[in-house]
Design a protein that fits this description.
Length: about 325
């Protein structure tokens, strides 16, 4: 068991080795058990986490804030709009200054081709751990909760389990590609056969695809790509269909919307779930565009594990905070 976490950042999914992720999951289950039993676990007494948000959030804010309080510390919610960042505070200044006030800095900055660089620039200047609450490239805490949920539902031995990460239609906005990218990076290290499904214009970043391929080779698992949602769903054990923007094809708003609108048939409905295994699970990081991305019948139905998945954000994040910030 690898336990050397103190002081470390968690920005990309592969910042922690597979063995280290296994430690995080062990700690997460221990903290989940403790919370269920009402056992105090004030591992971060008097510690304060800065939560700097450039984008809105329901789950990430709620779970980090509750998690820090349950660990005996405090989380300070900072909306970037209320700071002096737009008046000149640089990433270096945020890292230097918040690093002196706080014991950890968590950031959500999803701007395309900017967010990940920003978080890394803050980390370079910070003397305390920097945690990625989602950027343009990764959503690593979501993915820790996801792998935790898959293991809870399907067991520790995921060999030959078919996990489908699929694009889905949504009308609300052009969503980041960070969730599917984190999923293909992390899931290919955990024994399952991963299938990525998306229309041709919705490709992921080439270097992320290469890293997922390298993982699949290293861990002896499948990693296939298809543009056929039905084909992907056939005999799946886990389906994770969600919308993302065609960012590698175009960053133009209107052009992007036109591309998204070409694929309204990419919905997860009862017929499609019928293609999966009888005991398959339906996952989504939320928020979902109900009626477009997924039917109410599926997201509220027997296959859906979305609330357990959302709950696991809390436990996985507490584990990483306790390990890195203690
Ligand atoms: N899944 C997720 O990150 O949710 P929020 O955007 O509400 O934080």
């Amino acid at each position: 068991m690898q336990t050397n976490f103190r002081g470390r950042d968690f920005i990309g999914d592969l910042d922690f080795t597979k063995e280290e992720v296994e430690t995080v999951l062990d700690v997460a289950w221990d903290l989940k058990r403790k919370r269920a039993l009402g056992e105090p676990h004030a591992l971060l007494r008097d510690k304060v986490l800065a939560m700097l948000f450039f984008f809105t959030s329901t789950r990430t804010r709620g779970s980090f804030e509750a998690g820090m309080a349950q660990l005996g510390g405090h989380a300070a919610f900072i909306d970037s709009e209320t700071t002096q960042i737009s008046h000149g505070d640089t990433a270096k200044e945020i890292g230097e200054i918040f690093g002196r006030y706080f014991d950890g800095i968590a950031i959500r900055q999803c701007d395309w081709q900017f967010g990940n660089q920003y978080i890394n620039d803050v980390a370079k200047a910070s003397r305390v751990p920097v945690l990625n609450m989602q950027c343009d490239v990764y959503h690593p805490f979501q993915c820790l909760a996801d792998i935790m949920t898959v293991i809870e539902k399907k067991g520790r031995d995921l060999k030959k389990k078919k996990v489908v990460v699929s694009w889905a239609y949504a009308a609300s906005y052009s969503k980041p590609i960070s969730v599917p990218q984190s999923l293909i990076l992390q899931m290919t290290r955990f024994g399952c056969d991963v299938v990525l499904a998306h229309p041709p214009e919705f490709k992921l970043m080439p270097d992320i695809m290469q890293q997922a391929k390298d993982n699949a080779k290293k861990y002896g698992v499948g990693f296939d790509v298809t543009d056929n949602m039905d084909e992907a769903f056939k005999d799946a054990d886990v389906v994770y269909p969600k919308s993302w923007g065609p960012l590698l094809t175009t960053t133009g708003k209107e052009e992007g919307k036109a591309l998204i609108d070409k694929y309204k048939s990419w919905i997860t409905d009862e017929r499609r779930m019928g293609l999966t295994k009888e005991d398959s699970i339906y996952m989504h990081c939320l928020p979902a565009d109900r009626g477009l991305e997924v039917t109410d019948g599926v997201i509220d139905g027997k296959h859906s594990v979305v609330y357990d998945e959302a709950e696991n954000r809390l436990h996985a994040q507490k584990a990483v905070m306790a390990l890195t910030m203690s």
